[in-house]
Amino acid sequence: MTTSRWLAEYAWLPEDSEPTPEVLIEVEDGRITAVTPLQGSTGPEAGVEVLRDATRLPGLTVPGLSNVHSHAFHRALRGRTHGSRGDFWSWRDRMYAVADRLDPDTYLALARAVYAEMALAGVTCVGEFHYLHHRPDGGAYDDPNEMGAALVEAAAHAGIRLTLLDTCYLTSTVSGQPLAGPQRRFGDGDAVRWAERASAFQPTDSHARVGAAVHSVRAVPADQLRTVADWARSRHAPLHVHLSEQYAENDECRVVHGRTPTALLAEHGVLGPDTTAVHVTHPTGADLTLLGDNRTGVCLCPTTERDLADGIGPARQMADAGLRLSLGSDSHAVVDLFEEARAVELDERLRTRRRGHFTSAELLAAATATGHAALGWADAGRIAVGARADLVTVRLDSARTAGVPPVGVFFAASAADVDQVLVDGRVVVAEGRHLTVDVPAELSASIEAVTPA
Q1: Collapsing DSSP states into helix, strand and coil, what is residue 453?
Q2: Among the four residues 85, 115, 196, 374, which has the most C-beta atoms within 10 Å?
């Protein structure tokens, strides 16, 4: 039995609109067993003797952050795609060049460094939208799930939990053009063969779970969508899908199917309470109604959506329609869930020219509890008895946060202000340093190994 006691200067507790000062958090075998606010207490818990063995956490302690949408290998593109004009589609060509150079060993090294960078940023769980299944020529590895296994191992080395969202990717266009070039390694031929391969991967590691993903309506023919959805639901696993990220996707879907991508997914049973739609940057009003009626969640990735010039989605309208909002860093142009969270509010200000769309507590929920639930870890993302002991402590004395009230941290702090991270009760980051991974060195080496000359 492993026990520990932590005294948070401030802690953000469930249902509270702002942080609570002086909170004692007790942990046993990776779970929170007691949460006791001490300020104003006159009971025995206020005694000095009781607190003698508690480790003090100066700053603001929040639940572990959840990065719901990741493509780990995209991290190799940071800072390398800005030399000329273009859009998502021209950026995608650069991304495919990196994808073409990855193998299980180089992917393990890169993902380990990327997941450790996430840990430094306070991320305790990641959803990896994984479609690099096969060899560059499209042939299977001896173990058809070797690339997925590399990601599971990478997360273990980095000390965070992983939901591997095994992605079905079969065609290159909505009209059904075959995969070609670097895309060939993404495909399994059809959804039945995708399901057979995905079913064969059953990691026993306690830090990893397997979910499913429909890459997009471009990549999965309409008559095969239900196969993926049924596979996920038969396993009570999360199901994710890229949705309406660009106008071109919407336009082509209307031409081919006579309806929007959202309507097509609804027709074929993809939407639902266990489904998370990623981006949803260009929905119609009817799309939002369909998503809300089906209780589908939405993962917003603001730093990627702005980096790729995709546009600004109607986040407040989504929330008002009943959509559960979560956050992802997607292409990792930035790995900073504080930045993703405040961008939800700030992008709404740009879109509407008005302030005050989301409270700090709403942004906290999107970055924590809602995100963990979207990845199948509903017992994480809260500082509460019975929850996983994921604790992220943010400094309140940095150049960015000095003088900022704790309630304002999501509008002031950055990933660089994360001081300590516990995942399932284990210290992974202390004093702003990862305990087992030299993150800058490993990022440099692993990116150099896969970057085209």
Answers
A1: coil
A2: 374
Query: Which of 166, 310, 330, 419 does the annotation list as catalytic?
Result: 330
Query: Which three-class secondary structure state does DSSP give residue 56?
Result: strand
**How many CB atoms neighbour CB 434 within 10 A?**
19
What are the angstrom distances between the C-alpha of 402 and each of 126, 264, 277, 395?
29, 49, 37, 9
**Which phi and psi (to 5°) does residue 113 adopt?**
-65, -40
State both tokens at 208: 């990893």
User: For 177-293, where are the alpha helices, taking DSSP H only?
Assistant: 191-199, 225-234, 247-257, 261-267, 285-293
Per the CB < 8 A criterion, the answer to whether 215 and 174 are in contact is no
- For 312-325, the pLDDT digits (tens) are 999 999 999 999 99
Residue 330 falls in the annotated catalytic set: yes
Q: Which residue type is seen at 391?
A: L
Q: Is-catalytic flag, 71?
A: no
Selecting among 279, 282, 332, 357, the annotated active-site residue is: 279
pTM over cut 0.70 = yes
* 30, 68, 130 from 71: Cα distances, Å: 28, 10, 7
